[in-house]
């Protein structure tokens, strides 16, 4: 019979459970090893990962959280929640720098489909461009020249390889100097909650001359399209502080705040904006002036700003890459964001100049205040109405805003245009290439405008929500009875020099505002909030900037010399940029 030997028993002299510290071998004491918290789902290490080709292999191999997916292997954890202990570097991970650095990715192509077929992706690179002339504060139609050599066309199925699209960051509309001081930051969701009801305005004075709208443009269809003409006319876009009429009204103390309808519409429709913009605010005494910069975003028209995949400009060369630094830059595509913006500005001006009858005119109380005696070129049809809105909440408050509004034509009929009867604003939507990047899924206008106009309008309301809202607000501020919107397309998608008018829509601004879900009360609430914010600041110059990549606006205090000619000349490259824009 086998013998049984009782194993040695290590008694704990301290009277507790388990062996005493004196009886534990040295190799089991884990001496001098730091403690690191961990979760059961954490990976302590691995020696190979044949599936990960994203560049996070080295990071996850040493126990650090992956920058690609913060959830780790525990897929039931809430998105973005950090795993317990994942933020601490593991002391037990195996580091082998030589091995890791020797690995290189050979092929990251997706596996071909098992069932026949495939996609052939190509691109025709026909380059082209255009130039737009803007002389000082006057914008001229018919002088905008196009140097075109074709266009860019992009094929392929919609949504094909969408994951390869890079989200390029937009640049700010103005360079933010380190000398500026940020005073306030307001998110768009806060602006959307504001509301202020404003009564009908008081008409102060009228200037300029308007021509009669040509009603034959209302009968144009896709089968009777009409070419867009180059009309040489001059139209001014002077900023608030340089307006001689506003300077006279300031001396009469007709209001506390002074601006133009183009500037104010951007502020009132700020929650819809995607592209960057900036408004220069000057406080002198108890008065505020909302100004624009020459050559800034107020002098051009955006295209498909609100589309899910808007037009893009080519990425600037990387200064750290010698090959890109020395390479000759290619001409911008005619379908880039900048080229489309210049094209849309050119179309808007010439359509407004062309669609009026110059032999039938109505004069306002005074002549055009910006047309000097040295000017010899003919003026465009334009009337200025200076109107004052009361923004006071109580009867004791004295907060009034004086706005220079513009109208483009009038419809002959009963009533005096000086009193607001039959006044019209004229704008134009443009189609460039339905198959190009940035088209926003727009249908072909030539085949859909007559039969399915609602689908075309719905797409434009989605892709150009901010632009249409600003046009509507400007029409309401000016007291226009009608809005005329032309549908203008390229004669050839690859040529941005020739355009045709396919149709013209007519609508009442208040009705169109309801269709666009534009709230004038919300816009006035935004204006009053910014006004109160600036009135609390000391006298000086400020700039309100829309963040180029976030839904937020920021108010900066800037030196009085900012955005002046002397300041621009002293800033080197920035000054050269402003001079070229002028």
From TrEMBL:
The keyword Hydrolase does not apply. One of its GO terms (molecular function) is mRNA cap binding. It is found in: Cytoplasm. Residues 311-320 have a biased composition (Pro residues). Residues 51-60 have a biased composition (Polar residues). Residues 297-311 are annotated as: RNA gate. Its main location: cytoplasm. Belongs to the eIF-3 subunit D family. The RNA gate region regulates mRNA cap recognition to prevent promiscuous mRNA-binding before assembly of eif3d into the full eukaryotic translation initiation factor 3 (eIF-3) complex. This is Eukaryotic translation initiation factor 3 subunit D. It comes from Suillus luteus UH-Slu-Lm8-n1.
